[in-house]
Amino acid sequence: MKLKRLLGVLALGLAVVTLAACGQKSTENIIKNELKDSYTGYSENKAYEGLNFIEGSDTLTFDKKDNTITNSNGKVTYFSVVSDDDVPSDVKTFLKKYDDELSGTDNFTIVIDTKEKNPTLKTGDSLYQVALSDSGKEIRIFELRQDYDADGNFYDFTGTAN
Questions:
Q1: How confident is the model over 12-25, as pLDDT tens digits?
Q2: Per-domain residue ranges for the chain?
Q3: Most buried residue, 8, 73, 115, 130, by most Cβ within 10 Å?
């Protein structure tokens, strides 16, 4: 009798752990399954890199195979996903102020480069946070370098999938 109970408790525990693990979405799965091919939206301000992430209305087209983002002017930006473990501690601290806004989204950090493919934290131009909601129908991309403008302006794109 005790053995049956013990086995039942172990089976239940295993089921809970398995379900919890299945509930976690990997960044690769988010990009593959939720990130749409293009989004049309708006940012009040341009990014530090200027020509690639522009102010005003824009359509951003994602090539998930080549890890590129192309804006409506044809400017290509290369990106790589930064794993949660590799996000610098100062960026993690900075992102805490966005906890409420990012809650309920599938979000991840990318490093971008306007010239070279496969940017890294060492070679890339800057970091951005990408947040998808409503199964990827809505996107927000915001610049994590927010200290370059005296007025505190930074790129903060919100868009809807096309």
A1: 555 444 444 445 57
A2: 1-25, 34-161
A3: 130
